[in-house]
């Protein structure tokens, strides 16, 4: 049998074919390597975007700057540039873009691959006051009450929240978030150093100042005039109304209640009105009074908690330092659900440390007094040179949450 003759040109053709196939395989390998690099970078940018959006939403929940928090998170995760942040209503969206330097792709004229990842996180308000942040100063819970008033040289440090309208005016200064479910008025040299939101209309006028790097947000209409250039108001959609549960239960303090039992020998049950004055000293303990309480004229008390079924008046240089039960200084169940019936009055140079709580009535504070803690009432009024330095939210749990929505 005669063997077929192999021509040299055939061997050359095979070599060319093999070379082309090898080149093609190398191209596929290069594409696979560069695609893998791009995929890995895409995973990194997505993780960084998720974390940054969550950080921004958490800052928003706590009345802080969401953009700054998101950018700081992105930087920590390796992306100091190429980051875009937008915060609107209760949403924070972060987009991170990056370039991947190719390996084999450069031989084909592709030196870089662009990747981009986005994430959106939402601030979900807590149901127990956590949505307001850490330090409460003034909480007015009556949604059907007339506006809460903070006026005439008041200084407040901490969160100010009104379930109805809110007026801040006449040289008053608030350092902390301001949140109103109804209309908000800031005027006459009033200053707000913190985030501002109203689910109603916003009125700013007559040298009102806003010193914060976030927009003041409102839902209704806007009225502004007379030197309000420090404000940058932004119209938004309404936020969900906050529902705040009772931080204390009066039954716990009544005879036989949990707090009464735990107080032991320090528990005092007083039937009828209780009056103290003229430099008297109140001993440390828990006092449950079935009646009205009047404390005035230089009375002092240390580590005292007073719970009354009637009205409580603390006046004329009376001073309470420290509390006996759970940070609660004064609680009155009086008022009958009336926004105008005063349940607690702290005024005339009186000073109180701890939470002041009137779930069923009006709380008045004014006339050169001071509170170190939170005041919580169906309606609250602050007038005439009264100072509040807010304290920890008196109810536990229910902190805000942040969730990724996309």
Task: Provide an overview of this structure.
It is built from three helices and 36 strands. The protein has helices spanning 8-61, 66-76, 258-263, and strands at 83-88, 91-101, 112-124, 135-140, 148-151, 155-157, 159-162, 166-169, 173-175, 178-180, 184-187, 191-193, 196-198, 202-205, 209-210, 217-218, 222-225, 234-235, 267-271, 274-276, 281-282, 285-290, 293-295, 300-302, 304-308, 312-315, 319-321, 328-332, 342-347, 351-353, 355-366, 370-372, 375-383, 387-389, 391-392, 401-404. The strands form three sheets. It has a 22-stranded mixed sheet that branches. Strands 15-12-9-6-34-32-30-27-24-21 form a ten-stranded parallel sheet, with no helix packed on it. It has a four-stranded antiparallel sheet with strand order 1-2-3-36, with helices on one face. Helix 1 (8-61) packs antiparallel against helix 2. The radius of gyration is 32 Å and the shape is elongated. The N and C termini lie far apart (75 Å).
Q: What layout of secondary structure does this protein have?
A:
Elements: H1 8-61, H2 66-76, E1 83-88, E2 91-101, E3 112-124, E4 135-140, E5 148-151, E6 155-157, E7 159-162, E8 166-169, E9 173-175, E10 178-180, E11 184-187, E12 191-193, E13 196-198, E14 202-205, E15 209-210, E16 217-218, E17 222-225, E18 234-235, H3 258-263, E19 267-271, E20 274-276, E21 281-282, E22 285-290, E23 293-295, E24 300-302, E25 304-308, E26 312-315, E27 319-321, E28 328-332, E29 342-347, E30 351-353, E31 355-366, E32 370-372, E33 375-383, E34 387-389, E35 391-392, E36 401-404
Parallel strand pairs: 4-7, 4-33, 5-8, 5-33, 6-9, 6-34, 7-10, 8-11, 9-12, 10-13, 11-14, 12-15, 13-16, 14-17, 16-18, 19-22, 20-23, 21-24, 22-25, 23-26, 24-27, 25-28, 26-29, 27-30, 28-31, 29-31, 30-32, 31-33, 32-34
Antiparallel strand pairs: 1-2, 2-3, 3-36, 4-35
Helix pairs in contact: 1-2
């Amino acid at each position: 049998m005669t063997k077929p003759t192999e021509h040299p040109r055939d061997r050359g053709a095979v070599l060319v074919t093999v070379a082309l196939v090898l080149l093609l395989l190398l191209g596929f390998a290069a594409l696979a390597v560069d695609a893998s690099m791009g995929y890995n970078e895409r995973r990194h940018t997505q993780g960084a975007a998720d974390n940054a959006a969550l950080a921004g939403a958490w800052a928003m929940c706590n009345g802080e700057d969401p953009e700054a928090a998101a950018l700081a998170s992105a930087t920590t995760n390796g992306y100091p540039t190429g980051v875009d942040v937008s915060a609107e209503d209760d949403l924070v969206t972060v987009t991170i873009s990056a370039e991947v330097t190719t390996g084999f792709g450069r031989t084909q004229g592709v030196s870089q691959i662009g990747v981009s990842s986005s994430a959106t996180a939402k601030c979900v308000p807590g149901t127990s006051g956590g949505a307001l942040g850490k330090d409460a100063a003034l909480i007015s819970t009556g949604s059907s009450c007339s506006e809460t008033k903070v006026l005439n040289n008041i200084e407040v440090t901490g969160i100010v929240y009104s379930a109805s309208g809110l007026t801040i005016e006449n040289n008053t200064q608030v350092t902390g978030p301001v949140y109103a479910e109804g209309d908000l008025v800031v005027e006459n040299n009033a200053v707000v150093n913190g985030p501002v939101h109203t689910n109603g209309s916003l009125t700013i006028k007559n040298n009102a100042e806003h010193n914060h790097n976030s927009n003041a947000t409102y839902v209704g209409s806007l009225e502004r005039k007379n030197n309000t250039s420090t404000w940058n108001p932004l119209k938004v959609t309404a936020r969900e109304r906050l529902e705040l549960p009772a931080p204390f239960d009066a039954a716990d303090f009544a005879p036989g209640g949990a707090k009464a039992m735990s107080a032991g020998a320090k528990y005092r049950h007083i039937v009828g009105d209780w009056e103290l004055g003229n430099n008297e000293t109140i001993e440390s303990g828990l006092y449950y009074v079935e009646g009205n309480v009047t404390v005035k004229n230089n009375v002092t008390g240390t580590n005292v908690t007073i719970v009354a079924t009637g009205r409580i008046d603390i006046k004329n240089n009376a001073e309470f330092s420290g509390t006996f039960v759970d940070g609660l200084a004064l609680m009155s169940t009086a008022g009958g659900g009336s926004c105008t019936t005063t349940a607690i009055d702290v005024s005339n140079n009186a000073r109180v440390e701890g939470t002041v709580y009137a779930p069923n009535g009006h709380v008045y504070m004014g006339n050169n007094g001071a509170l170190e803690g939170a005041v919580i009432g169906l309606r609250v009024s602050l007038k005439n040179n009264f100072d509040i330095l807010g304290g920890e939210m008196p109810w536990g749990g229910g902190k805000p949450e942040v969730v990724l929505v996309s």
